[in-house]
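Session log. Operator J.P. requested a structure for one protein chain; no other inputs attached. Running the standard single-chain path with token output.
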Amino acid sequence: MNTLMDVLRHRPGWVEVKDEGEWDFYWCDVSWLRENFDHTYMEEHVRISHFRNHYELTRKNYMVKNLKRFRKQLEREEGKLEAAKCDFFPKTFEMPCEYHLFVEEFRKNPGITWIMKPDTRSSDDQKDDIPVENYVAQRYIENPYLIGDSFFLCLTGRKFDLRVYVLVMSYIPLRAWLYRDGFARFSNTRFTLNSIDDQYVHLTNVAVQKTSPDYHPKKGCKWMLQRFRQYLASKHGPEVVETLFRDMDNIFVKSLQSVQKVIISDKHCFELYGYDILIDQDLKPWLLEVNASPSLTASSQEDYELKTCLLEDTLHVVDMEGRLTGREKRVGGFDLMWNDGPVSREEGVPDLSGMGNFVTNTHLGCVNDRKKQLRQLFYSLQVQKKASS
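Structure written below.
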């Protein structure tokens, strides 16, 4: 089920362009961007679904390089305490260029498990005639939080990660929105570190899990984030869960800040990122990777509804119709998380001097009454427009 085409074709007043006709909005893939962006003239109102060098955040080796650099900058400018807020990604080495550093670390800590991840480079990135196979070697998180409760029999002792959606409309200034809905993706097989060769135990993405003999196509392997948050609250209490989700907010903001100075912030561009987060037994969230083209294919009816609503709300924020004022802090399921600084849940200008009572405007895994909110939003915008005219 292609949610993207369904949403775009049903958007009121939008017409699909055939062949090489003129267009106003293009949800392109990254290969088109690489080949055509620099040669395409775009008028003021035109929008496209990627930043030119999005890979600074979405390629594993670049993401880690930028996070390490940003951490050093924070330690130099604001001290070790602030820099420690970047300690949310596992120790990582780029192969083959950091091979000797990896070997040194490997010998210092025998018995540690490492995972090798392919780092796919475009043909533009290959400087030499001979292609080099590039990988990142990343320390494997050996103590993942597992869902283990007799009430959840189908998921007992399963590993999972979270898929969270962040929409960036601008890098300079940084303007980012966090979507309320997302999902937890479970493995089909009970987790044991000894079964390191079993991909169905360790890899939670649906593309792998649906090939498992235990995969149930109707049930899938997903929980919506609201259900996941309620489960954690029942096990650990709401305060612990609030801290966990606040730590995830920190991951989104710090990772975007780490590439703020290197991403080409073109006014025609926006980007819907898919963040993959793993939680360990201490309820510490870890950033695994950021996807520039998160899957928009639905694996179930619930998945279809989530992704169509996500895309509809993305188009509302992009606002090709010019209905918004630019002062909105919520549009459908999206909450404005960062607007050249943290955004407060409270109305008015917050006092950031002590940050004591400051609460960030994020509601990940909370109720998403998007239809009601959109009705109220667009009605109030119509009233304001009539009043001003």
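Operator note: The chain has twelve helices and twelve strands.
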